[in-house]
Amino acid sequence: MKGIILAGGTGSRLRPVTLAVCKQLLPVYDKPMVFYPLSVLMLAGIDDILLISTPRDQPLFQHLLGDGSHLGIRIGYAVQDHPGGLPQAFTIGADHMAGERTAMILGDNVFFGEGMGALLTSAMLGRGAVGFCTRVTDPQRYGVVSFGADGKVDKLQEKPVTPLSDWAMTGLYVVDGDAAARGAMLKPSARGEVEMVDLLGSYLAQQRLSMVKIGRGYAWFDAGTHDSLLEASEFVRTVEGRQGLKVACLEEIALRRGFIDLDRFAVLAHDAGDTSYGRYLRAVLAEMREA
User: Fold this and answer.
1) Per residue in 189-201, is it b (16+ CB within 10 Å) or e — as a string?
2) Which listed residue, of 31, 123, 240, 283, carries a Cα 20 to 30 Å from 164's Cα?
């Protein structure tokens, strides 16, 4: 199955820290931010991924993630020359998609919740376009979706002054093979970018749009501001400290999803060195060998 991580943009909301490095490489507690969206795709069994970034940052992502073979997956790279809106991911990634159903996730989104991978897998098996939404206290900051009495999507709004609901669209979407062509036909909004609500609206007009509600038991962070970045880090630190389990540990996910075998995992655990991350991997290795 195919996926796209959109890690472009200027990171203007996080300046001055993003003057030297892109936000998706900033740490969310003990891992680079990009590990978190990548983990969501991997948990859903998606193993063919295109990472879209700026020309400046692409070499850094390549140095961090390589071609993905160490994780038993495939990671390719493409460039977004300038921020032109989220639907650009599908026009840039058209060759990667090759007309197939694809999941796209934003590189600054952090999701947490048991069964998140299963939710995405189910959406990948559906039809048309699927978005993921969650309740927020400040829907004016996001794309908003409202539902009719029948529970189906009724209307979409982009950063509305008067929101029709408190259901905000997250940065996780699944689209069919038509998305690249649909995206290419969109006209930029007043802010000079093509909008995701317009792309999804084209599916809604044909009754081919559905939404997955991420409710109780799940957490979502748009880690694109100083406060939300800190909140996400504190959340991950608390979860890991309480449970003794790592969030978005790519090597562990690769092992448990069957992308790599135990021998390959042992090499990765050794290479992680004498760090808390490395010690965690070696603890997982010992547990798996005893099982």
Assistant:
1) eeeebbbbbbbbb
2) 123
